[in-house]
Specification:
This protein has one domain. It is 72% helix and 0% strand. The protein has six helices and no strands. The model has no long low-confidence stretch (mean pLDDT 93). InterPro entries: Prepilin_IV_endopep_pep.
Length: 164
């Protein structure tokens, strides 16, 4: 992996709770809060300054801006939700550009697993654990925060273990 194991390890304690919160609120309310997105971006801006070389830090901030622009365009086209686009932008600087193919594979596997699990639980007695979650009754809409947060968490966990 191209990501630094050192950086991934030190990002984890800050990022994992945010990823869990994003997955939970998207399941419960079908929304990713601005506070979670801002916190995720702020963690990178502050902690990343200490963990990454300055040129890498600057490039990663550019990644955040580029993903935000792409997300705004996709949101305007109705392809993704606004919260999903903002979360992807806030998560982008944590990803080493050399790991993009790996990240897409993690995301694809995570999306399939999350979608199948969500739909399966929706029609089982397990649904009674959280009967009021909005994601159960939104038709074909899916809480992408479950997959987006999970993908970032898995990527950083793998990076801490197998990173450069």
């Amino acid at each position: 992996m191209a990501v630094s194991a050192f950086a991934a390890f030190w990002f984890l304690p800050f990022v994992l709770p945010i990823c869990f919160y994003v997955a939970f609120t998207d399941l419960r309310e079908m929304r990713i809060t601005n506070q979670a997105v801002i916190l995720l971006a702020a963690v990178f801006v502050i902690v990343g300054l200490f963990l990454l070389p300055l040129p890498t830090y600057g490039l990663r901030l550019l990644q955040m801006g580029a993903v935000l622009v792409i997300g705004i365009i996709l949101n305007a086209a109705g392809v993704v939700g606004a919260g999903d686009a903002k979360f992807a932008a806030a998560a982008a600087p944590y990803i080493a550009i050399g790991d993009l193919r790996l990240l897409l594979a993690i995301f694809a596997a995570n999306l399939l697993a999350a979608f199948a699990t969500h739909r399966l639980v929706k029609y089982t007695p397990l649904r009674r654990v959280a009967p009021d979650w909005k994601s159960w009754s939104t038709g074909w809409k899916f809480p992408m925060g479950l997959s987006l947060g999970g993908t970032l968490a898995i990527y950083l966990l793998l990076g801490a273990q197998f990173g450069a």
